[in-house]
Every structure is written in C-alpha cells, then in structure tokens.
Design a protein that fits this description.
Helix content is about 85%, strand content about 0%. The chain is an all-alpha fold and about 120 residues long. The chain has one domain: Helix Hairpins, CATH 1.10.287.3610.
Length: about 120
C-alpha cells in the first residue's frame, strides 16, 4: 500500500491516517473511550499533585503508555479477526497477549501513581 509520496505530502497523509485511526478507535472501541476519559481526568489531576516536574512527567507518561497499549491491542485484534474468524490457538494467544499489554500498562500506572502519591502524602 505504498503511495510513493514523500516530504510534506507524506507527513500530512500520515497525520490523516492517524486521525482516521483515532476516529475509528473512538467510534468502535468502548475500552479506548473509557481509558481516554480516565487519562483525561488523571491528566488534569497531575497539575494538582504537589510534586516535581519530573514526577509529573512520569505520571503523564503512564497515561500515554496505557493508551498506546490499548491501541496496540486493538490493532492486534483487528488483524487476527481479518485473517480468520475461526477459533485457533494462535489467534487466542495473540489476543490474550494484546490484552496483557494493557494490563501491564495499568499495573505500571498504578505503581508509578502510587509511589508518587505515597511520597507526596508521606511528606505532609
């Protein structure tokens, strides 16, 4: 599916494809919408947490990681479903690992947020 575009035209098309991916994910994936809402709320909350700029950056980075892993999981599921709708061990494995990506991202989020918030409240 290479278009042969280069330079600014290629970059602009890449943004359009990314926007299309966002719209499709938002429209069809309830988990993505829920995680996007959670991340928006936590993003605002970061600015009320009395911690260093580096700690704020860590908190925000966990939000992006959750969204990235959800999008990767969605992509994996779409490819598996596109290839075949029959049940197969490798299809299940791919989807389960995709789900695990999201879980690991959430565990990382909880560890980082818990550690930073513990440090903030322990200092009070």
């Amino acid at each position: 599916m290479k278009t042969g575009d280069s330079g600014i035209k290629r970059i602009l098309k890449a943004f359009i494809y990314s926007y299309d991916g966002f719209k499709e994910s938002f429209k069809t994936e309830a988990a993505f919408r829920q995680e996007l809402l959670l991340c928006a709320v936590l993003f605002v909350a970061v600015f009320f947490v009395p911690c260093s700029i580096i700690e704020k950056l860590f908190l925000i980075s966990t939000l992006f990681i959750v969204l990235l892993m959800e999008l990767a999981n969605t992509a994996i599921e779409a490819v598996v479903d596109r290839v075949s709708d029959e049940r197969h061990y490798l299809s299940k494995k791919a989807k389960d690992v995709g789900s695990l990506l999201v879980l690991v991202a959430f565990i990382y989020l909880f560890i980082v947020w818990g550690t930073v918030l513990y440090g903030v409240f322990a200092a009070l």
